[in-house]
Specification:
Oligomer: single chain
Structural class: alpha/beta
Strand content: 15-25%
Strand order of the largest sheet: 1-2-3-6-7-8-9-10
CATH class: Alpha Beta
Largest sheet: 8 strands, parallel, barrel
CATH architecture: Alpha-Beta Barrel
């Protein structure tokens, strides 16, 4: 996680902007231009998404250290959408942003290795190594156990990548499974968090955090604080800020005494800021940047400085 922490410290901003572009979020002038060229097709939708993202990235790059594209919003537009995702990742990285691919992948053995190669690594084509998406980190569903996580770790070490394991997610029904008590009277989420510490033991960096992070939601601040105390070497990706109801006080328990240990995600509140503020659609990126600054300032005021 050193690269992400360095980026957070450089911009004094522990937030990540989620790039989850619904067509309804995209200004009409962008959609019209894309449809004029490609029609109301998957190609046209993907072109609109990419243009929207580029405008956002131009405005957000000086403010946020990282972005988090959610793969499903691109997959819904077929291979054309996946091409837009790849182009979005490249464009973001060219601007110096750390890219967390939110794919929540989950499988075992060589299948998980294939996911790792696709989203974080390289694939060999008759002796030639090529990268597909080449994100900096990937969200991972852990519910196949170590068999579904272990295949990722060698590649993470080789290519300086990280993973974020789903531990205590922000959605309302997460407790149906994650809060269940196991035979040792620990919750399932606490057990998965403990596994994150174990999986990352050999990969701790300069700041003490390993390559195996955890997803822990802002909508459950008590559990967030519990996990921060229990997992001193596990960096948190914290969804649930903004549109889902989480605020600065809710995310504060995710941080350690140095103001490190977490990056806070907001997606909808940034992407739709132009609509919520009544801004001209041509100023959608400016509105997104203003919301990103407001979010940063609110969290920094609550958490304090970053050492």
């Amino acid at each position: 996680m050193d690269r992400l922490i360095d980026a957070i410290r450089a911009k004094k901003n522990p937030t990540v902007a989620g790039l989850d572009p619904k067509l309804a979020y995209i200004p009409a002038f962008i959609r019209r231009a894309a449809y004029a060229q490609y029609g109301k097709t998957l190609e046209g939708a993907a072109a609109a998404v990419l243009q929207f993202n580029k405008g956002l990235l131009d405005a957000l790059a000086p403010i946020v250290p990282a972005v988090k594209p959610q793969c499903a919003y691109y997959e819904q537009f077929g291979w054309q959408g996946m091409r837009a995702l790849e182009a979005t990742v490249r464009y973001a990285q060219e601007k110096g942003l750390y890219v967390i691919l939110d794919g929540k992948r989950n499988d075992i053995g060589t299948t998980m290795e294939a996911y790792a190669k696709a989203l974080l690594g390289t694939v060999e084509v008759d002796g030639t190594e090529l990268s597909a998406f080449d994100g900096d980190a990937l969200t991972v569903n852990p519910y196949l156990g170590t068999d579904g996580v272990a295949p990722l770790l060698p590649l993470c070490a080789q290519r300086d990548k990280s993973v974020f394991i789903l531990v205590k997610t922000s959605n309302p029904s997460s407790g149906e499974l994650q809060d269940r008590l196991l035979e040792d009277r620990r919750t399932l989420y606490a057990t998965v968090g403990s596994l994150c510490e174990d999986w990352g033991t050999q990969t701790r960096g300069r700041y003490g955090y390993s390559r195996v992070g955890a997803v822990a939601g802002a909508t459950y601040p008590a559990q967030l604080g519990e996990l921060r105390r229990a997992l001193p070497h596990t960096f948190f990706l914290v969804p649930g800020y903004g549109a889902q109801g989480g605020g600065a006080k809710d995310v504060a328990p995710a941080f350690d005494a140095h103001g490190r240990g977490a990056v806070i995600n907001a997606s909808r509140s940034i992407l739709t800021a132009w609509q919520k503020t009544g801004a001209d659609e041509q100023d959608y990126a400016k509105a997104a940047a203003a919301e990103a600054v407001r979010m940063r300032d609110e969290i920094v005021a609550e958490v304090g400085g970053f050492e």
